[in-house]
Amino acid sequence: MASKPVWEQIGAGFVQHYYQQFDSDRTKLADLYTDASCLTWEGVGFQGHKAIMEKITSLPFQSIQHSITAQDHQPTPDSCVMSMVMGQLKADTDQVMGFQQMFLLKNVDNKWICTNDMFRLALHNFGA
Question: Taking the CB of residue 22, how many other CB atoms lie within 10 A of it?
Answer without folding.
Answer: 19
